[in-house]
Design a protein that fits this description.
It is built from 13 helices and 14 strands. It is globular, with a radius of gyration of 20 Å. The protein is α/β, with parallel strands linked by helices. The chain has one domain: Ribokinase (UDP-N-acetylmuramoyl-L-alanine:D-glutamate ligase, 3-Layer(aba) Sandwich). 40% of the residues lie in helices and 23% in strands. It has a 9-stranded mixed sheet with strand order 6-5-1-9-10-11-12-13-14, sandwiched between helices.
């Protein structure tokens, strides 16, 4: 297995080097959210004013909170980093890091761009609708808790978007874009209305030589009703008329979608294999591509065929908030450069693998260097 994985990574490297299309030749349209992310550690024991031990896992924090029921407790939070956040900005920033040309529409600050988005705005064509939301991202070795303040996202509606980006200009931009990505459906209350308007009034007017990729990420839809989620699935399916649709899910989201779709599985959605749940959802939705990425692996169905890779493992991730968005950018990069489905999983997991180790997205050359390093350490903790 290790030898096969090494050969796959090497084949992916050669495909990237040999691709006629280069990242600099790609145009991408991304939106529609925007958050200021505050990365936070939770204190377990305070040793002195300068040092402390950290609550390592979500389970440990849950146990501490549980002990406080009926009483009270004090939990100390240590801000470690303030960075650009939101599914859209993080994915856009990763695509920009590869060298792609990016147009971003979302919540980057108004009237002035917030400082955390300044570098992104300077490198991209940006249309900011309103102020960003704010997320306190509590980081643990086994996951993260995203505590979001999202009231401002009600400003993300068609009227406010077109006040900044007129429909005719949007048609022009989308016509030259190989990728259209609209993410964070869960936190944008009017996203369905935006999608419907685009389907009715914008996409039919595109003048594209071939169908662009359209990437969607629901972003943890648990708090939305089953009816809302089912409606979103129907709208995403409608995009197939104009685009080659990719739906990206993490493992938790895949279980929720399987439940909403009422799929018949061999066990509860959260208990079945990655292959079973990915294949079942793909068969029901009948999209160009479905990709599901748990923490340590990733699977995709393209053309009715399931493909799978184990990711590059590290027991000590330095930053996990945004890892999924970096996976999405890497997977879409592979698709845009014409790589095979399993190779796209490698570019996705390779991008997220670099990100969690280096706390930033890789440049294209750095992605290839990381894939080389990964191929030399397949199956190891590195």
């Amino acid at each position: 297995m290790a030898q096969q994985a090494k050969e796959l990574i090497q084949e992916t490297l050669q495909a990237l080097k040999g691709s006629e299309t280069k990242p600099e030749g790609l145009s991408c349209f991304v939106g529609l959210d925007g958050f200021v992310d505050e990365i936070i550690h939770v204190v377990d024991k305070r040793i002195d004013f300068e040092s402390y031990t950290r609550v390592e896992t979500i389970a440990q924090l849950a146990e501490r909170i549980g002990r406080a029921a009926g009483l009270s407790t004090n939990i100390e939070l240590i801000p470690k980093q303030v960075k650009l956040g939101g599914n859209g900005p993080i994915m856009a920033n990763a695509l920009r890091s590869y060298g792609a040309q990016v147009t971003y529409v979302g919540c980057l600050g108004s009237p002035d761009i917030h400082q955390v988005f300044r570098e992104l705005a300077d490198a991209c064509d940006t249309y900011s609708i309103c102020e960003p939301g704010h997320t306190d991202a509590l980081e643990f070795t086994d996951g993260k808790l995203m505590l979001g303040k999202i009231e401002v996202l009600k400003e993300v509606n068609w009227e406010n978007i077109t006040a900044k980006l007129p429909p005719e200009k949007m048609v022009e931009i989308l016509s030259r874009s190989q990728l259209i990505s609209m993410v964070n459906w869960t936190m944008i209350p009017y996203m369905n209305d935006i999608w419907e308007t685009m389907l009715d009034d914008v996409l039919p007017k595109l003048d594209s030589p071939e169908k662009p990729l359209a990437f969607f990420d629901l972003a943890d839809p648990e708090k939305r009703s089953k009816e809302d989620i089912a409606s979103a699935m129907e709208l995403i399916q409608r995009f197939e008329k104009y685009c080659r649709v990719i739906l990206g899910l993490n493992r938790k989201e895949a279980s929720e979608i399987a439940d909403v779709l009422g799929l018949t599985l061999s066990d509860k959605p959260e208990n079945v294999s990655l292959e079973e749940i990915t294949t079942a959802i793909a068969e029901r939705l009948d999209l160009f591509c479905l990709v599901v990425h748990p923490v340590t692996e990733a699977g995709t169905v393209v053309g009715g065929q399931f493909y799978h890779v184990e990711g590059p493992y590290t027991s000590n991730p330095r930053l996990t908030t945004g890892a999924g968005d970096n996976f999405n950018a890497g997977f879409c990069l592979g698709q845009l450069l014409g790589l095979a489905p399993q190779q796209c999983l490698v570019t996705g997991t390779g991008t997220s693998g670099f990100y969690v180790r280096n706390m930033r997205s890789p440049r294209f050359s750095e992605l290839m260097d990381f894939l080389e390093l990964w191929s030399e350490n397949v199956g190891q903790d590195f």
